[in-house]
Design brief:
The protein is α+β, with helices and mostly antiparallel strands. Helices cover about 35% and strands about 25% of the residues. The radius of gyration is 16 Å and the shape is globular.
Length: about 180
């Protein structure tokens, strides 16, 4: 049994509403075990014998559409991947405010050319590092809420689906999926 987390994009932050009890039920009904949600923003940890993260993500997305008529991008990471992410933030030693550190989880690794062309909007003090399917973000002068360097901006510039979590959530999800 491998521990995973499914990260749903855009849940309970705009018009897409999803009760975490419904999310737990759907993931449990798919045959996964020890299903637990974190916060109200579409984070669900679970155990599964399925070893294919893309298949897991597609199954959860399809069930959300079939049962609740929600079309929501779903990204899945294993506990091992989350441990590496939590241990690999290049800005963690520079910042003690977890709201200024974020990880943007990317559906696929972006093309090198789009990463090379990625730039912070003028006048903002944001540092970023894109590594594989994650972008580590450090909002030096303030939080994510005041920045134009947002999840939507990353999706547009990198050409991939993304969902972002603050550092506190990343660490909590890593703990929830630790085996």
């Amino acid at each position: 049994m491998t521990r995973y987390v499914a990260l749903l994009r855009g849940v309970n932050v705009g018009t897409t509403r999803l009760a975490m009890a419904d999310l737990r039920r759907i993931v449990t009904d798919l045959g996964h075990e020890d299903v637990k949600t974190y916060l109200q923003s579409g984070n669900v940890a679970f155990g599964s014998t399925v070893r294919d993260a893309e298949k897991l993500a597609a199954g959860i997305a399809r069930a959300l559409t079939d049962e609740l008529a929600l079309t929501v991008p779903v990204l899945v990471r294993s506990g091992r991947e989350l441990a590496a992410i939590a241990g690999g933030n290049p800005y963690a030693d520079r910042e003690d405010d977890p709201t200024r550190l974020l990880v943007a989880f990317l559906a696929t690794a972006p093309k090198k050319s789009t990463v090379d062309a990625l730039a912070v909007p003028g006048g903002e003090n944001v540092s970023f590092t894109v590594t594989g399917r994650e972008a580590f973000l450090h909002y030096v002068d303030g939080g994510y809420g005041r920045s134009k360097f947002t999840n939507a901006y990353l999706e547009k510039k990198l050409g991939v689906v993304a969902t972002s979590r603050n550092w506190k959530s990343v660490r909590a999800l890593a703990e929830m999926t630790a085996s």
